[in-house]
């Protein structure tokens, strides 16, 4: 029977996402990834390299998945609150994503380049440009710079999942109400972006 390399890589990648989200890049263990994926640890090294390289691949893959699932173009920028709601929905379905970003931040020295920094910066520049064009067309408030709006949306949509303890203390009525959390986020971002919907 032929070895299904694509399936094996997918199993390893899925196991690595869970491992790195739970333990971070330093405490994650390749043997646990191998056991979870049901493969020999040597396959991980041959397909993905060492642990640092594996974390980079995991993070890059997850960033690409988010970018594909929730693109920000001029149409989406026209209702930035709803776009934030869609990012919230993505994080709700993929809670590991925010954890991976936090692990990256915790294990990166200030000013040190991060995984795929140039590509990520270019991707964010495209989003900022879409926001700027939407502002120029009059469909988005111009009181905040496009980069400020984008940063706010990213932070506001993700922080619900990064610090659930704050959510519980500040908004106990919404703690177990993800639909209410989403509605609050959408209202807040619409207010920030000058959309009175």
From TrEMBL:
Origin: domain of life: Bacteria
Keyword Nucleotide-binding set for record: no
GO biological process: regulation of DNA-templated transcription
Molecular function via GO: DNA binding
Domain HTH tetR-type: residue ranges: 6-66
Gene3D superfamilies for this protein: Tetracycline Repressor, domain 2
Keyword annotations from UniProtKB, A to Z: DNA-binding, Membrane, Transmembrane, Transmembrane helix
Keyword DNA-binding: yes
Residue spans crossing the bilayer: 149-166
DNA-binding region: 29-48
InterPro entries: Homeodomain-like_sf, HTH-type_TetR-like_transc_reg, HTH_TetR, Sco4008_C, Tet_transcr_reg_TetR-rel_C_sf
Protein's UniProt name: AcrR family transcriptional regulator
Organism of this sequence: Actinomadura citrea
